[in-house]
Structures are given as C-alpha cells and as structure tokens.
Amino acid sequence: MSAAPVPLGSGGKELSKPPTDGISNLRFSNHSDHLLVSSWDKTVRLYDANANVLKGEFLHGGPVLDCCFHDDSSGFSACADNTVRRYVFGSGKEDILGRHDAPVRCVEYSYAAGQVITGSWDKTLKCWDVRGASGPEHTLVGTYPQPERVYSLSLVGNKLVVATAGRHINVYDLRNMSQPEQRRESSLKYQTRCVRCYPNGTGFALSSVEGRVAMEFFDMSETAQTKKYAFKCHRKTENGRDIVYPVNAMAFHPIYGTFATGGCDGYVNVWDGINKKRLYQYSKYPTSISALSFSRDGRLLAVASSYTFEEGDIPHEPDAIFIRSVNEVEVKPKPKTVPAPS
C-alpha cells in the first residue's frame, strides 16, 4: 500500500450512555441508522445513532462477545455464558435460541439462508433456523466441527468465511454445509483477528495481531491467486524501533467497496484495496479501536474506542462510541491518473 500523506479527519460525535466495559462489537442495521452494541459489561445496547438515543438495553449472564440484527425489530447475541440469544426490541422479550459447550465468539444472520450462524471456542460452527423456532431442539439445523476455536465469521450472499485459531480459514457454501468448499491457511504469519468478505463477493480480507491485512480471493485459479497480496498497517517507528499493533477491526464501505481498519494504535485508516492506496486517516481516538461499522448507505461510520487489554490490566480511557459523518472524499477511490500523451 502506498503511504502518501493522507488528510486527517475529526473523530465524530460521541454517543451518550456507552457500555461500562470493553466493547466487543457494534453493527448498524441494514434498514435504518440503529446501532447494536455488545459489551463485556454483560449488555447488548440498541441506539439510534443519528439521534444519539439509547433505545434499549438487554442484560446477559456473562460478557457478550458479539451481536447482530435480524431486522429492525429484533437481533441476536453471542455470550460468554455459552448461550445464543434472541431479542425483540420493542417488547423487551428475549429467549435462548441455543447453546454451545464454550463461550460463543461470533454470531451472523444470513438473509440468504434465513439462518443464524454462530462460532464458538468449543471449535464448532452451528446454524439455527429462527423461523420454525419452538424450543432449542427445533432451531438447531446443524453442528459443524472446526479445526480450532472460532475467532471471526463473515458472510456475503451464500458464502461464509470462518477464521479460527491456528490460522485456519474455512470457506462454506450455506446451501451445502456438509463440508467446507475450501480449507485454507491464512497467508499472514500471526493470529487472525478479523475476517470480512468483499461486498462484491469475490473474496475476503484478513487482519492479524501483527499489523497486517491480507487481501484474498475465492477463485483458486492461478490468474486470480496472483492478485492476492498483504500489506503492513497500524505501525510506527520509535527510536529506530518498529512498534506493531494488532488490527482488531475492519469494515467495508457498502457503496464504494473501500474499507476501514482499526488498530490498537487508536487509529482508523481507510484503504482502496484495488488501487492499493490509503485514502484517509482519522485523527487518533482515545484508545484501541475494537470495532467498526458503516451504516447501510455508507454515510455514517461507527467507531468503538475501547481498550482491548493488549498490555494487560492498566489504567485506560473510558469505553466510547463515536459516530462519524462520512465525507465522500474519505471513502471514494481516486481515479488513476493517466499520463498525457507526449
């Protein structure tokens, strides 16, 4: 990636009534500017990000490691007490969709399959049918063993990408989950932090604890595989020494396909993966970036500034959520300049 000087932007407005402990994830709705936030303080919170209003709060039996929307009226959570829960926001009703044998790290809702997909530290993936739900035994569609603990999941259409400990990557077709379509190994040497599929469905990005992002493609042909590459980011040099930060979060812009990365250095960068350029860097946030999400139209970016305990239990800035209004110049790929004919 080219490291040309990039403009700096302000952090955005801070949401009131944030979680009181680490923010594990945040997600915008596909239908509105509602934002769902999961936290180690054992809550899932629902905000109207535009109005800066906390609309609901749901308490769990343990830290909540992930959350996602079903639609604007309901959502799901993945909890360290091994449960997968469903909430109806308006009524405050909640039920347990099912359980894993260890903390549930990830939850995704597939509009294509009409199913909830969860990944756990019990080294399994589970699919749940929420439509015919009448008790946990009826909702479980299948359990799929993984090579290691599940760290991150991402969906695009019928494709599901699973990143686990040990740098394993499994790619599934949701229409046939009996076995992975592809079993791959991360091209990054260190532990995977986050996987996110490209909005156009051609591949996925992986980020690692060692300040790198890899751009991967589903097509295994030689031609397609020559396009894959990795780049360094979220690093600095101090007194001649390289300081490298984990890249905790990534989010793709829904319109332009450019993407944001957030690191333990407190920075959010925006990248053009096709032209291999950094487009923008926002001014530094108070602490590590733990999660990122663009709104459905790409006009807003939610940023979780939340210490991720990479240096142990030390004094740190309070957990906060910032909502940035996104300017087109920050996320739109710049046209390649063609030299004038001589």
UniProtKB/TrEMBL annotation:
Localization of this protein: Chromosome, Centromere, Kinetochore; Cytoplasm, Cytoskeleton, Phragmoplast; Nucleus
Domain of life, source organism: Eukaryota
Family statement: Belongs to the WD repeat BUB3 family.
Gene Ontology terms describing biological process: cell division; chromosome segregation; meiotic cell cycle
Keywords: Cell cycle, Cell division, Centromere, Chromosome, Chromosome partition, Kinetochore, Meiosis, Mitosis, Nucleus, Repeat, WD repeat
Coiled-coil blocks: none
Organism: Rhynchospora pubera
SUPFAM superfamilies xref list: WD40 repeat-like (SSF50978)
Protein name as it appears in the record: Mitotic checkpoint protein BUB3
WD repeat start-end pairs: 97-131, 247-272
Keyword set includes DNA repair: no
UniProt main location, coarse: nucleus
Segments of this protein annotated with the region Disordered: 1-23
GO cellular component: kinetochore; nucleus; phragmoplast
